[in-house]
């Protein structure tokens, strides 16, 4: 049976509907960066997803090619993810989707090296006659976070985010969204086939312990 990251790493992909604290280790991703409203048909975001899956399935099906990746095992392609931010805003403002900056992602199995990734890009370009130059190999160390399973439409996410931040504050943590740590979403449902009220999305925010904030502030005063 193919290895399924969602089932094997439930602490990262299947959190409860109540906020929890989690430490996320470094992971490698297929990534595409862009800007703008993700809902525009034929827009930059939709094209980015096509590029991501083009590489993801080229790697998955490498077992049937001349490229035998060392350490390969059969697996389910992990879910689509996204980092989101807007200039001058801590968190996200869902009423201004046109101002989104985003990095769209799919996790890579640990056995995939940068050389394997580069091979997949070349192979996909050759077979699909498509430019994959926007796709990159990204290593991201997310670290300490608060996360929660959100059930419902993307536009109702602020309700879950508010619960997460209340839990975070009561647990003596503070929000640490920066230009390197982002609002993070993991999409467990296919939005094309799932009613908005039934969508499952993992929402994750980077945090720090309150003591770390106080220490940083004291350093600034010295």
Gist?
Helix content is 30%, strand content 27%.
Question: What does this entry look like structurally?
Answer:
With 222 residues, the protein is α+β, with helices and mostly antiparallel strands. Helices cover 30% and strands 27% of the residues. It has six helices and nine strands; from the N terminus they run H-H-E-E-H-E-E-H-E-E-H-E-E-E-H. Strands 1, 2, 3, 4, 5, 6, 7, 8 and 9 form a nine-stranded antiparallel β-sheet that branches. Helix 3 crosses helix 4. The termini are far apart. 28% of the residues are buried.
Give a topology summary.
Blueprint: H1 5-8, H2 10-13, E1 20-24, E2 27-35, H3 44-60, E3 80-85, E4 101-107, H4 114-128, E5 135-140, E6 143-151, H5 157-170, E7 173-175, E8 183-187, E9 200-209, H6 210-221
Antiparallel strand pairs: 1-6, 2-4, 2-5, 3-4, 3-8, 6-9, 7-9, 8-9
Helix pairs in contact: 3-4
Helix percent reads 25-40%
In terms of structural class, how would the helical and strand content be classed?
alpha+beta
- Head-to-tail CA distance between termini: 58 Å
What is the string of helix and strand elements?
HHEEHEEHEEHEEEH
Uncertain runs are: 215-222
Brief descriptors of the model:
globular; disordered C terminus; 9-stranded antiparallel sheet; 222 residues; 9 strands; alpha+beta
